[in-house]
Amino acid sequence: MGISKDDIPFIFERFYRGEKSRNRETGGSGIGLSIAKAIVLAHGGKMNVESEINKGSKFTVKILL
């Protein structure tokens, strides 16, 4: 639970998977956050993350209406 501070600069890159996610048990391709950020940016918005190991992560999306 939570994202390492070392991984945060890379989590929105296509196919990036943090060290803990690089096993067959967790699954995923590492493309979801990249797609989400592309959609948000296409609408003129911003996407940010705050995370703490063993506590969790909070993703914030801001789009002006």
Automatic annotation (TrEMBL):
GO CC annotation, single: plasma membrane
Top-rank EC class of the record's enzyme: transferase
Phosphoprotein found in the keyword field: yes
InterPro entries according to UniProt: BphY/WalK/GraS-like (IPR050351), HATPase_C_sf (IPR036890), HATPase_dom (IPR003594), His_kinase_dom (IPR005467), Sig_transdc_His_kin-like_C (IPR004358)
GO term, biological process aspect, one: cellular response to phosphate starvation
UniProt KW Kinase keyword: yes
GO molecular function terms noted in the UniProt entry: phosphoprotein phosphatase activity; phosphorelay sensor kinase activity
Compartment annotation: Membrane
Protein name: histidine kinase
Annotated source species: Thermoanaerobacter uzonensis DSM 18761
Lineage of producing organism: Bacteria, Bacillati, Bacillota, Clostridia, Thermoanaerobacterales
